TrEMBL record:
Gene that this sequence comes from: LOC127356645
Keywords: Membrane, Signal, Transmembrane, Transmembrane helix
Bias kind Basic and acidic residues: ranges: 464-475
Signal peptide range in chain numbering: 1-17
Protein name per the record: Ectonucleotide pyrophosphatase/phosphodiesterase family member 7
Membrane found in the keyword field: yes
Record field: transmembrane: 425-449
Amino acid sequence: MLWTAGLCLLWASSILGAPANKQRQKVLLISFDGFRWDYDRDVDTPNLDKMAKDGVKALYVTPPYLTVTSPSHFTLLTGRYIENHGVIHNMWFNTTTTEKKPYYQTQFVNEWWDNGTLPIWITAQRQGLKAGSLHFPGTASSYQGQVAMVREVEPLLYNYKNETAWRENADKVMGWFRDEGLDFVSLYFGEPDGTGHRHGPDSPQRREMVKQVDRTVGYIRHSAEQHGLTDRLNIIITSDHGMSTVYRKGLVEEITLFKIPGFSFSDVSFHLVDYGPSGMLLPKPGKLEKVYNALKGGHPHLHVYKKEEMPECLHFSKNDRILPIILWADAGYLINGYFPVQFNKGEHGFNNQEMDMKAFFRAVGPSFHKNLEVGPFETVNIYPLMCHILGIQPEVNDGHLNATRRMLVTSAATQAADVNSLPNVFTGLAAVAGFLVVVFIVMTSHKVLKNKRQRKRSGSSEPLPEKEMSKQTSL
Ligand SMILES: *[C@@H]1O[C@H](CO)[C@@H](O)[C@H](O)[C@H]1NC(C)=O
Ligand SMILES: *[C@@H]1O[C@H](CO)[C@@H](O)[C@H](O)[C@H]1NC(C)=O
Ligand SMILES: *[C@@H]1O[C@H](CO)[C@@H](O)[C@H](O)[C@H]1NC(C)=O
Ligand SMILES: *[C@@H]1O[C@H](CO)[C@@H](O)[C@H](O)[C@H]1NC(C)=O
Ligand SMILES: [Zn+2]
């Protein structure tokens, strides 16, 4: 009886976050760039399998459109669709000067990233937590003048495939959690994207790289253990997009805008093409209809949209940075300008409804259920999940905890109540106070009855045995 009451109280206090037995939960968000949802199906992945057994696995997750690296990673950090966070492309561009900056240089264009939406590092720090980031897209920029308090940006010519460096980075991040008291870290690995591009998603090279990812996942979990973090650290592993095999000339007719009858580059003042399967055009004044009508139906696998007519489910329309005409190609096709200049065997950037664009998702740690497989969800929902585990108030975002709540163990699923709303704390405290009163009454009457019985048996009134006393005081 007393024992049961004790357990109940322990449970009650853990829900309320009593400092005695609850430490703040930490979150490590890891992205393996371009890890398609099904990459573990044709490779032996003992460590990913073990992680699924010890935690949660989603069938797949749906990245935002445009399915490219920087925009999709910024969605992970903000929970906003791309049209809402403003990082609409891997490349910064200026339609007036026609200047463009490639992926790496764009990392350092502050105004591109800091467009009104705060990444989780800044939000966490503003609420008293400590955040860090290693190589995650967006790390180099500042946001309303603030940066992640511990951060590392890779140099220009970085070898994204080096497994030894991967391990060093994993250990470094664990050190940040343990020695610098960080609560949240985002960690980025540039593979298997690079290998998927170069050799294609069905290549033996891609399968080898997935084995390297798997070994690294094992290493990361081992390192967390070595650093004494397993009881506090939640590890979420996901990706920014998948990868699709590119069809080549001879097999299909490629999409080359220059060859489409009625279309002329002299009618556009700025274009962003030759960048995978997507493109954007800014027609010259008065030329929008002409350009649109020429391209629409110009190739059976080319989709042409006016910005404001984009399918709403893609959430890629309502932003000043998005150009008036948007092009995208069916899976397997690329959009070329004057002639093909893209030679990758694998590409991404396709419609996010294509199965090839779906990414993987795994999570393990004290906040997550074990051995649970869940259905698919959109990656905008990862942000509110992380905020919830960290106990911080999220910024306005496009995700919802509903999508992932099922993954959380009960205490974690209800934690937000005490962190995010004070009235709930008082309700909770009142409930526990009431509960304590009931327990006290029950225990006292129990004790009285027991003593009565004992007195009946032995004729004496002994005090409670030592063991029971100590259990009572430990409550
Ligand atoms: C683009 O360049 C023009 C001319 O230098 C400048 O006036 C404008 O502010 C730039 N726009 C952006 C978004 O950088
Ligand atoms: C976002 O960037 C656009 C230019 O690309 C600019 O006009 C706008 O003011 C920016 N918004 C914020 C909130 O920074
Ligand atoms: C891989 O990384 C390790 C550790 O940073 C470094 O010593 C080594 O030279 C790197 N190897 C290659 C091939 O880049
Ligand atoms: C979340 O789930 C609750 C309960 O099922 C429901 O009332 C609410 O509308 C859902 N919210 C969203 C945004 O899905
Ligand atoms: Zn990517």
